[in-house]
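Input.
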Amino acid sequence: MNTGLDKLNAFSREQAEAEFLKCCGSQRWASAMTAARPFADVDELLTKADSTWRSLSSEDWFEAFRAHPKIGEKKAAAAQSEEAEEARKWSTQEQSGINDAPATTMAALAAGNRDYEQRFGFIFIVCATGKSSEEMPAILQARLQNDADTEIAVAAEEQRKITRLRLEKLLQQ
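Output.
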């Protein structure tokens, strides 16, 4: 038995919340997920994760966004605890498509990140898993064309995808 889901269900409230925060930096989301335990199966966990995420306010979303490093950077803007080391490792893995990016690509990402944050007031969030360094600046530039409401929704959906991937990683530990 002793699966990742069994462990998650058995954790203390504090342990479970810390594990959920590795997956999504929204305190309200992590608290709600902790309170929703036990989960009967992975599908129930993922469905609850999605519905809880979609029920949150934009301020909760922004809190989660701040837990991420900018694309092309290693450190998140929000201070993270030592327990968040796993989340940093996951972020590095997720952004691995840009590890060997040429300097021109990294410069374009840095400039795009600045433009994006100035325009929207939060960092550029993208589910980078499986995306190459060549794709990132184009995705960023395309999203800079969105209006604010559209972009908040797009960023929230990208965060939802990241959270789902991280939940799956959490269960595989």
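The first helix runs from residue 4 to 10.
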